Amino acid sequence: MSDDSFFREVDSELRQDQAKALWDRFGSYIIGGAIAIVVGTAAFVAWDHWTTNKANASGDIYLQALAQAREGKTDEAKASLEKLEAEGYGAYPVLARLRTATLLSQSGDFKGAVAGFDAVAADTSVPTSIRDMARLRAAFVLVDHGTYAEVAQRVEPLTADTNALRHSAREALALSAWKEGRAADAATLFDQITEDEATPMNLRRRAEMMSELIRGSGSAS
Fold this sequence. Notes:
- The chain is built from 9 helices and no strands.
- The chain has helices at about 5-70, 75-85, 90-105, 110-120, 130-145, 150-155, 165-180, 185-195, 200-215.
- The chain has a domain at about 1-105.
- It is elongated, with a radius of gyration of 32 Å.
- It is an all-alpha fold.
- The longest helix has about 70 residues, at about 5-70.
């Protein structure tokens, strides 16, 4: 046997001894880690499957409620939304609350609708963007069924130049001001809408039309 072969065999034996020693010392941990990975993966797959099914089921109930509302089945729609609010998954319970308030408004219960939107707006567990939308929805109900002060209470914080809802918030304030005979205030608000380059085109056209109407009547002076 050559020296090189001898040294290779010795080195191989040493490596095997080291590997055996490492396995004897850490083998149980390696097996435990492998089992943990398998169990963790299985748990994640099961959780993902469960959440997907929950979300799909909630989505089906929500679509059913919308269809019932379109068909004039208000009581059935409300029942579906109540079920979704109590048992729904993800964002669907909040959507159900908003839709219930909308149904109340459509059925003439404006006080109940505003209360529903206000409840969502006051719920700190709801994302800020949805709470702001609820404030805006309440304000538009109050344009026809409330006072300027009530509208302003809900949407004035949304009129800041950095707020994405500022255009609609200003429109609600302007319409409410015009309704209460505050034509100059309404014209100023409509001008803010038309002068904002980020204003959506359809809203800009409505604001321009209202500005022309107010100034044409001579009531903005």
